[in-house]
Amino acid sequence: MNHDVHIIGGGLAGSEAAWQLARRGFKVRLSEMRGSGEMTPAHQTDGLAELVCSNSFRSDDDEKNAVGLLHHEMRRLDSIIMQAGETARVPAGSAMAVDRDVFSAGVQRTLEEHPNLTIVRERVDALPASGLTLVATGPLTAKSLAQSIANATGEDSLAFFDAIAPIVHRDSIDMDVAWFQSRWNKGSGKDYINCPMTREQYAAFVQGLLDGEKTEFREWEADTPYFEGCMPIEVMAARGPETLRFGPMKPVGLDNPRDATPEFPQGRWPYAVVQLRQDNKLGTLWNMVGFQTKLKYGAQVELFRTIPGLENAEFARLGGLHRNTFINSPLVLDRQLRLKGADHIRFGGQITGCEGYVESSAVGLLAGMMIANELAGTEWSPPPRTTAMGALLAHITGDAESDSYQPMNVNFGLFPPLHEVKKKARKEAYTDRAKADFGAWLEAMDAVPA
Are strands 56-59 and 95-98 parallel, antiparallel or unpaired? Predict the structure, then answer.
């Protein structure tokens, strides 16, 4: 099939962009190297839109939360990622979490069935010299293509380490010790499994993290910074003995019923808590929330089985570590995600320096819309900066400082401020303003899906 657009990379961003273009009537060639005999250090399948880290798209609250607002905007644009996410959804309180296998299969099936889209299993080694192209290869871009990108941009690629959290078999968790509860009792009440720790157990655990044998860095990985939002637990522990208790092991809002007394019938907060979140629809797999790690496998098993309730834990997957590569987008891309000096090439997804599944998908969606407008010969108008998509796009394409550019999740700090609104009401005000402005933008762009 002759194509109008070549998309390189079948992850979240590439899949979303391909869907947005195909459903608008344009012919798309989607190249994905997995399935051609190639694999990345982190992927385990050749499925499109495979989730390699957490199974959570984070908060689905579109009234007070920036990422929930991003969900809302993507749904209004008929996002394939949001559609597949709903189909594959598993309980996670106010968050949106999915069965990763059901999710990937749903995205792939929808794309395979579309007549305007051809999926080709092939590795692309260099940026095409001509033809509309979207590079959405993500943080695990093949070395040869990464070199081609570096040559084209005139800049060395930046990188950080992205760590993967372990997954535990549900039936190996001791529920005589652990208990079901969402923090502050949000959600259904059974969205998280909680493993409590005493002060002594916590201190021993932190020491074990510091002493445990860790993955050695290869020469080319030296001096690569971590992304703050995906920090390995042992790196957090090294910042101070109480750091984890104010992070992923925070006990507040979790009353341990095993410690109930007449005075405190709901129990009291433990000193620290390890939370696990359902990872698949069957409820047979649960991931350790916030437990990204670069400990070696043997050290992980030994240490994690000291956690109360996980003494006999069986792991479906242990934690891992991979390098995450992204370009200095504010310096090398224009406001339409085009490569300066080679405007037939656009970039989308995590390689642009956005961080998170939803953010990656959203930037892929925007790139697809930009290309569709270009093919249709219509003028592109970006979403207002007061919206989640507009704020994220503005950050990537120029609002951020290029000399200190780092990966960023969507957050209200990227939005134009509302200083006149009282602090307690600001989040609702941000979302109200965003929804109104996004609706007006859609109407002006004539972009509301049929």
Answer: antiparallel
Asked if 179 contacts 193 with a C-beta cutoff of 8 angstroms, the reply is yes
Q: Are residues 123 and 179 located together in one domain of the fold?
A: no
The pLDDT of residue 401 is 72
CATH of residue 84's domain is 3.50.50.60
pTM confidence score: 0.82
Check pLDDT > 60 for residue 91: yes
Report, as an integer, the average pLDDT of 12-32.
Answer: 98
pLDDT band per the 50, 70, 90 thresholds, residue 448: very low
Task: For residue 341, tell me if it sits in a domain.
Answer: yes
Dihedral (CA of 224, 227, 230, 233) sign: positive
**Partners of residue 8 on adjacent β-strands:** 31, 135
Give per-residue pLDDT as tens, 47-56: 999 998 889 9
Range of the domain at 246: 164-323
Domain CATH number, residue 220: 2.40.30.260
Q: What is the side-by-side order of every strand in the sheet holding 342-347?
A: 117-121, 28-32, 5-8, 133-135, 342-347, 338-339
If one counts the domains in the chain, the total is 2
Q: What percent of the chain has pLDDT over 90?
A: 70
